[in-house]
Amino acid sequence: MAGKPVRPVNAIDQTRRMLSLVTYLKERPGARVEDVARAFGISEDELVSDLDVLPMCGTSFRGGDLLDIDTDGERIWWHNPAALAAEAAEPLRLAADEATALLVAARAVSTLPGLRESDRQALLRATAKVETAAGEAAGASSRLSVTFESEGGVFADVDRAIAERRRLWIRYYSPARDELTEREIDPIRLVSVGHTYVEAWCRRSEARRTFRLDRVAEIKILDEPSAPPEIELRDLSEALVQPAAEDPEVVVEVGPGGRWVAEYYPHDSADELPDGGLRITLRTPDPASLRRLALRLGRDGRIVSPPELADSARQAAREALTAYDGIEAARTTRVVEADAREQHAAHAVPDGPGDGPE
Amino acid sequence: MAIAKAERLMNLALCLLGTRRPLSKRELRDSIEAYVEAFGPGNGATGSDDSFNRMFERDKDDLRELGLVIETVENLDGEVGYLARRDSNRLPPITLDAEEAAALGLAAKVWQQARLAGAASGALQKLRAAGLPEDVDPYGSHGALEPRIPVHEAAFEPLMLACRDRRPVAFDYRKATAAHPEQRHVEPWALECWRGHWYLAGWDRDRGAERVFRLSRITGKVRSRGGRYTAPVPDVVTVRETVASWAGEVADRSARIRLRAGAGYPLRAKATSVRELGDGWDELEIPYGHGLDAWLVEFGPDVVVLEPAELRADVVDRLRAVAKG
Fold it and tell me: In order along chain A (358 residues), what is the average pLDDT of each group of 10 residues?
């Protein structure tokens, strides 16, 4: 797995881990450092730093023995396992946060379309057992929930192509251009961050591309083997697409009703304007793709630069209006209520990750 | 150098777990090296009782945070003592097979928020200590699936804790269309992540009604408020349906549009009917929900709204604003 897990170093996490560690080690004399680190999902260095602390610990009340645990870097030896009474070494019940973190994640993953049915069944069984074992601690887990979005059929095909190492043919929708293009891709991995994406090597552009599954209009698994070049997998946790410094700059000024732009478009800066709006500077390899944004904004904002982009939006609007000649003017007063109403349709807003300038 | 906090917490935990009778604060203070070093007789710091008490209380809270049930009992001499009873701290028996273990292993990796990532690993480690099978690399054979739950909002953690502990909060919230944030007083019920964004559902005390907030619009700190909830918490909180309706996903009407042949694939994908007109245009019937006007305008001259008149007027209105720009 390439994703870099978040690994906070803090005393609570370390204590929690060491408490489980003593239970685990008590039953496994001579356990290998490598195996224990893997079982605990930590690096060998982290494990060794735990092993440095443990010899200072014990049920030290009135001269109880300290834990005589040491390691030669290869194996772990505990010379006085009796120093820890049986009751202090039993597996501990789950805390509310632990039960919540595990159960919410398990429920979310179990709804992923494309998860192999046998894996889903295993996860559902495991979830039920953990709920039971957690008892009351499981209660608060209903206060947090996560839904992954993805297209079931497309997901299953991509997943299968990756498993069988086969090339895919897709018809892919690019919102920037409002067009469908056909391409052959060698899929590398599926990533779910809100939406689900496939990271792949695009044979047409000979480059790494990220495709959002709900924009795949058609998909076929080809007979050719998939042969992506060896590329380093990036940590996609922050943003799927990072604009490059050399990309052209676009400046957009929005009123209060257009502030959502700053939430949806990765940008270099967003400065407050006196009217409650924002002046947003962003970079995109293809400024023409932002014509959609200019049109959507309407009276809530305008493109300041480049001027050609502003012109093309104006031009498009004028052309569109010719179809409505003779239509009476719209009601001029519109009540914009909405406590937290979205000023956009979520399905229509490009959220950054596209597939590059094509 | 002061003794590391993890060492101090570990010793306190082992003492409380290992004892059969309640241990007094004094006993703990005299026997745990970290306390002795900081507050022992040789140390002589004035007011050290207060600072010891504060540290001791914090340490107990920290241990409770990681799941330890610590009881406070009075012993025969009327002195307060502490212990972590075996019965209340033992994980009930749980047997998971290799497949189930692998599935949980995958799930435990999805959090990208430090506290929850730590808690999920902690849960897995406790299960591991209880015999959860190992050495099965989840999906190792095909390693394709990498679900991640993004959490970028600073308000997430305090709100998660407030939901957990049922604690009222106050925060500054900037509505989508408002220039300035406004303070809101909320009894938080639940957090939900949909399409990569987090939302909070709760009782808005100022509005006297249920409200859903988007976390990215909370500005500044989330502050805790004392007291209890004044409104009942519903059994089922449906954030998703509320948000979906803002996003135009809930459509109760339909609209008729003309769309240039070959253009607007997403509109076609949502259409309930498509009819070729033969003049380079198609006629589509599409669901009409909140936000459709803004979406249609994005397609510029490739879309013409036929009906209803209201939608047509909204679209013309928007186009005029851009044309004037």
Answer: 47 93 92 93 92 87 76 91 81 94 92 79 95 90 81 78 92 88 92 81 89 90 90 63 76 90 86 91 83 90 91 93 70 37 35 29
B119 and B84 in a single domain? The answer is: no
The Cα of A205 is separated from the nearest Cα of chain B by a number of Å equal to 22
Any idea what DSSP says for residue B91?
P
Which single residue is written with the structure tokens 């429920």?
A107
- Rounded to whole angstroms, the Cα distance separating A259 from A277 reads 7
pTM, rounded to two decimals: 0.75
**Which among A92, A98, A187 has the least Cβ separation from residue B89?**
A92
Host domain of residue B122: 95-149
Those residues whose C-beta lies under 8 Å from the C-beta of residue A175, and which sit 6 or more positions away, are A215, A289, A292, A348, A350, A354, B266
Are residues A178 and B7, on separate chains, in Cβ contact within 8 Å? no
Considering the domain architecture, whether residues B134 and B183 belong to the same structural domain is answered as: no
> Which residues are paired to B199 by β-bridges?
B192, B214
Picking from B24, B65, B14, the residue whose alpha carbon sits closest to that of residue A55 is B14
Query: Across residues B89-109, what is the average pLDDT?
Result: 92
Indicate whether B75 and B101 sit together in one domain.
Answer: no
Domain count, chain B: 4
Contact assessment for residue A132 and residue B94, using Cβ atoms and an 8 Å cutoff: yes
Nearest-CB residue to B120 (from A105, A143, A149) = A105
